[in-house]
Amino acid sequence: MRHALNAIARVLLCAAGLVMATYGTLQLDPLKSLSLREVLREPIFWVTVFGSLLAATAFAFMQRAQHTAGRAPRPVETTTARTGSGKDENESTAEDGDKLSLVEVVGLAAGGVIGSGWLLAVPGLHESLGEAALLGWAAGGVLMLTIAVVMVEFGLISQRTGGLLFHPHDAFGPLVVIILAASLWISYAINPAAQAAAAVSGLAEIFPALADPDGLTGTGSALAVVVTAAIIGFVLLPRRLVLRTNAALTLLKIAIPVVLVVFLALAVPGRPTDPGPAPGPTTTGVLSALITSGVIYAYIGFQAPLDVTGEVRGGPRAVARRVRWAVYGTVVGSFLLYSALQLVYTEHMAASGAEHGTSYALLTDSAALVGAPLDWLVVLVRLAAIIAPIGSGIVFTYALSREVYTLSAERYVPSGLHEQRASRLPGRTSDSFWLILLVNLVLALVVLVAVGGDWQTLAVLNTIPILILYAVTCVVLAVRSELLGTGLQQLLPVAAYAAFVAIALVVNESAWDRVWKGVAVIGWGSLALLVLPWLHRLRVPGLGWYDAKNHGARLFSRDPANRPFVVLAVYLAALTLLSAVRHRIDDDSVWSVWSLRVLVMIVASGAFVLLVGAGRRYLRQTRLTTTRT
User: Fold this and answer.
1) Pair 362, 269: CB distance under 8 Å
2) H or E stretch including 626?
3) What is the mean pLDDT of residues 425-432?
4) Which pLDDT value is given to residue 374?
5) CB 392 within 8 A of CB 268
6) 143 within domain boundaries
7) Do residues 394 and 234 make contact, with C-beta atoms less than 8 angstroms apart?
8) What is the pLDDT of residues 514-533, one digit of tens each?
9) What is the pLDDT of residue 133?
10) Residue 448 counted as domain residue
11) 29, 174, 360, 624: most buried, per Cβ within 10 A?
């Protein structure tokens, strides 16, 4: 606990110093005409000096902590599928120093969350809910924290890379994993494309030729393709360089919105010269706004440390401590940050009389502090609009490469994706990830081109599959409740049930065009993972390399994995149908809306009970089979 608090304190002090030094440097220019004595009397001069010293001192302590942790004699690039660390708390290995430190684990969690979401969701949520927008962040934060508690506490039981998929494998069998693998792979692969589209959209404020009111132009789409390739290609650099760069980017991504909150809270709002095109606010409900306005999209990504738990430094207790600090701290911290951003945004919107949907850049460009314009903040906003999405894309790309590696090791996908190959990449003599990243790049670019670089569509295709993955993980905890400890852990199944039903309500309240697209990509991805191995067995030309196991053949037998697969597939179909019904209901018909919500809760509750029962039945049958053999 003490080491974790010290690490967090060092990061916060370094971030505070960078913020103070950056602000002071930007304000030093007017002091050039003053004498030395006058300069020494200016508070901004001492803010700059103190911030620089604070950042330098904190960074020095961070470096010292890294060196004392020990250096590894060789890099570790492989991950172990379906195995835990198996080390005692006091056991030390030569490779442990090369595993993820607390700062790097926090960098994965916070770096995955702090992306393009806050820049685009805050104006969008205000447009949907007006002054009640803070309720959207509160509802999303409670939902995400509940899901995080369930996923973290259960995921730490085995502490293995790929646990997000192989815990469901243990509880339901391989057929359910097919659905979840498609959900995770598509969602994670799309994320770099969505973040690249967001980064280019941010750059379009400087170069208007990159975008128009309908989205990215041809030039903008081409640049988004290049940025997507650059994000995925960056993960091919030496692993330690990728992790440290991500930690530094995360620090910067947190510092910029903190600066915005501080100065916009002190600033006097002004009337924007260009009020923005969006009318509003609309009458969207809180639950509907969670996906439509990008709230859930802004929160997802905290699970990145759970994708790579087997790579975290230390024994079981140290790993659990680091993962808990990273995930819980990220969810709570992002809620506080997003809420603060929403509060200052709402205040400036109300005082300036600007139209709903006005961007951060327009608000900051017109605000003033002590009579001095804050137009320099526009530079930070535009910098965040480019850096934050790219950093988040790096996290998702890194995590996906590890998940696909474990899928390949278990032959859910071709075994060739986890084989070691000679590599000429810097810092690597052999590599097993470049082919995975190449496949992910192709998938991301295909989707990016298919949707024309539209960020909202990409965000939906990223959000719906992740929510389904979260929901099934909640059911897994209830199925394997015998693995839970005593005390508060016994309440986790209740939290899992609540999160499962809440996810169903959120999906049902979302716009129909978003729901069907999200479920459709899950369906097509699952179908591909089921059919391709069957075509390989039929010796279809061109598929000789696809040697994944033919799990689809189980559907034509009395395999115990069939029941949970059918229950989950029927539940997803029912949820999609209920969303279509919700689309047909007039929002003014309060009775009809609440009747449908009750029906959704009943259907979700029934699906939860059936999935838990199917999972426990699968466990009993597979254990009997194992005993006989």
Assistant:
1) no
2) helix 590-628
3) 58
4) 74
5) no
6) yes
7) yes
8) 788 888 889 988 999 999 99
9) 82
10) yes
11) 360
What is the structure's pLDDT at 543?
78
Token digits of residue 66:
């890294």
H helix intervals, 510-589: 512-537, 562-584
Alpha helices (runs of H) in 99-212, residue ranges in sequence order? 102-113, 117-129, 133-155, 163-172, 174-203
CATH code assigned at 355: 1.20.1740.10
| AA identity, residue 274 | D
Domain range enclosing 165: 101-480
Contacts of 380 (CB under 8 A, 6+ apart): 256, 259, 260
Tokens for 603, please give them. 């259907």
Instruction: Note the pLDDT of residue 80.
Output: 38
Decide if pLDDT at 74 tops 50. Answer: no
Total of domains in the chain: 1
Amino acid at 338: Y
Phi and psi dihedrals of 174, rounded to 5?
-70, -25
H-state helical runs in 204-315: 218-234, 239-266, 286-292, 295-299, 304-307
> Which pTM value belongs to this model?
0.75
User: Within 13 Å and on the Cβ side, how many CA atoms surround 228?
Assistant: 31
Write b or e for each residue in 504-514: b if 16 or more Cβ atoms lie within 10 A of its Cβ, otherwise e: bbbbbbbbeeb
| pLDDT at position 312 | 83
CA 147/CA 499 separation, integer angstroms: 6
Residue 11 within any structural domain of the chain: no
User: Can you tell me which residue has the tokens 């002091």?
Assistant: 31
Q: Give dist(CA 460, CA 115) in Å, integer.
A: 15
Q: Is the backbone peptide bond immediately before 281 cis, with ω within 30 degrees of 0? A: yes
3-state secondary structure of 584: helix
Angle between helix 239-266 and 316-352 (nearest 10): 30
Q: ∠ at Cα 481 (475, 485), nearest 5°?
A: 135
Peptide bond into 75 cis (omega under 30): no
Q: How far is Cα 452 from Cα 136, in angstroms, rounded to an integer?
A: 29
Residue 461 is assigned to a structural domain of this protein? yes
Q: Position of tokens 């690039």?
A: 77
pLDDT at 88: 37
